[in-house]
Structures are given as structure tokens and as C-alpha cells.
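[SOLVED] Need 3D model of a three-part complex

Original post:
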Amino acid sequence: MGRSPCCEKEHTNKGAWTKEEDQRLIAYIRVNGEGCWRSLPKAAGLLRCGKSCRLRWMNYLRPDLKRGNFTDDEDELIIRLHSLLGNKWSLIAGQLPGRTDNEIKNYWNTHIKRKLLSRGMDPHTHRPLTPVDGAAASHEAASHGVVVRRRQQRRDEHGGAAVPRPEPRPVSGPAGCRHADLAPGLPLPPPRPPRRGGVQLPSGRQPG
DNA sequence: AAGACCTCCAACCGCTGGGAT
DNA sequence: TATCCCAGCGGTTGGAGGTCT
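Solution:
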């Protein structure tokens, strides 16, 4: 439609946010409030597009965010809301104070989907799986590394190298904290709890 | 100890809907 | 009505880091 780009991409940073960028964004929103994301980067002295600023604020820097693992109650609420609303993550997030749509979306894709499959439920329809579905689901549950393999396949298609991105993300922050450590004195979110990383294989499956 | 495998999540991209002109 | 601008949404990705062999 001939729409102008959302920002002058050649003059913007991409990838992980630095401590200084976070501070600038927080300071600006503290004084001026949210809104007018398009003009915010320039006003705040950030070399980011407004979209990126909005995302960073909404998903990470907002002071009212609740960090930490989801409770069982939250799990069940998400499942119930998803059965009613589908993939309307923003609507679901609206019912979970302190949670973001991105966080819920990630949590759904990494945990709840599998939880439903293990219960013999179709995560899309929330109905019991048919035997055929069940076979497919158990296959999916047993092979949730499929995403990784798909990526591997794409990498293979690129000659074994990672599929190139416009700009590599800068390495930032200490271990377990991709964003740089942030300065004291600002209303920054508490650190995330230890991640539950590592191999959690479905029963009966051996890695490698 | 090293490498393979896997999880997790921040951040990206593209699209859509609504308001303004 | 048609077009443009913008904020917001949903899907997808890269890569850090944990676990296992």
C-alpha cells in the first residue's frame, strides 16, 4: 500500500537492549508517560524504532509486571481462557494482572500445550484427542524438539550456517540475564527466578 | 570435559484494525 | 470512499544456558 516504514531501520539498533537504553526509556516514560511510540525514540534519544520501545516497555520494563513462575491457578485460568478466546493472548493477558501477552504466549507454547497433550487434550480445540489425534499428539509430545530440528533443517538449507539475520544480536548481560545488568535507583523489575532449563524429556524418550 | 540435545524467552517481523485526512 | 498512519497483536526466531550421555 506504499506505506512508509515504521522507522528508519538503517538508523536504529536491533537486538538486546542495553542498560543505558533501558534507563533512557524508563526515564522518558516516567516523565512523559506512555503513548506516541513513533515519536518516543527520538524524544528519548534512543536509536530504536517505536515498536521496539513499546515492546520493551510492555514486556519487560513496566513496573507493574509480575515476574516469576506461573502458579497452578494461573495455568488453569489460562487454559480456561484459551478455550474461550483462542490465541487472543492480549485478551488472556488482560485477565492476568502483571502478566504480558508475550509471556503468556511463550508459556502456552512451552508448557501448557504439552500439559494438555499429556492429559490427552487437544490444545487447539480443548477436546479429548481421538486415537488418530492422540497418536499424532504423542508423537508431537515425544518430539517437541521438532522446532529445533526444523531450524536445523533451515540451517542445513543455508549450508550449515545459521539463517542470517539483518544484524546479529549483541551479546549482553551476565549469565542468565540477556539484558545488561541495570542500574540501581530505577523502578526496574526484579530478576527472573532461576530458569528451569535443561532436558525434560517425555517419559520413555532418551535424548541423543 | 566435550558435545549433543533441549528449554526458555526476549525480541523480531509482518499483518490488521481503527482513526484521521 | 480511498488512502495513510499508527498502535497493537500473533507467529516466529536466535541464542543463552541447563542437562544428559
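Edit: The two ends of chain A are 49 Å apart (CA to CA).
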